Amino acid sequence: MNPLVTTGLDTRSHGTVLSVNVNKIALLRNQRPLPIPSVVGLSRIALEAGAHGITVHPRPDERHIRRHDVFDLAAMLKDWPQAEFNIEGNPFHNLMDIVREARPRQCTFVPDSAEQPTSDHGWDLARDGERLAPLIAEARALGVRVSLFMDADPAAMPGARNVGADRVELYTEPYARAHGTAEQARSLAGFAATARAAQGQGLGVNAGHDLNLANLGDFVAAVPGVLEVSIGHAFVADALELGMAGAVRAYVAALGRATTR
Q: Is 169 a catalytic residue?
């Protein structure tokens, strides 16, 4: 493993950390030719309230996060050296140029097409692994941790390690759909098995997509060793009711309760 890059915090001592995805804040701002709401300002409030990091997913069409947002956030985060900056995106589109310049703590490679409204599947490494490997190696040489967005499939975890990833981010929408139904236990078992398989390969485990205050605790309590969750859509919806700081406190508290179950 590249000594410049580590898989991150040990959840046995730190618990699962929260990275707030601020894409939807940028989406709202972009509806008018005005700088409000402020992506940087609200990110700062999130960090002050206890968030452990900020996530952005700059798409080629800049439908929400724009290129300048990435660098404005990077400048702000210099005042928060303990916080993680996670930049998501497809490395075959616009991501790598941004990573080369911004040098975030982590980049998450996501296999979305340019026209997708949101990410909806993990990597097929049998198809894309050979193309991914040199880009992963490049990012890691820059000192950037690389996480791959992956479906819950234990058999795919050796492939993630073989292409050089540091972590996987488990795509949790299938769990969110199953939560509260008869399928919940089986879904959680699949995610838990995938997490154990990833950890057996020396990979850290992140998770994200459609996690919210109702389903987050059950997921983190059942899936071992989740290092980080990245939450955006539900978080911003909750922030409309609770305020930005209040939403951070609610999610951090939910993570804390789950970790001690």
A: no
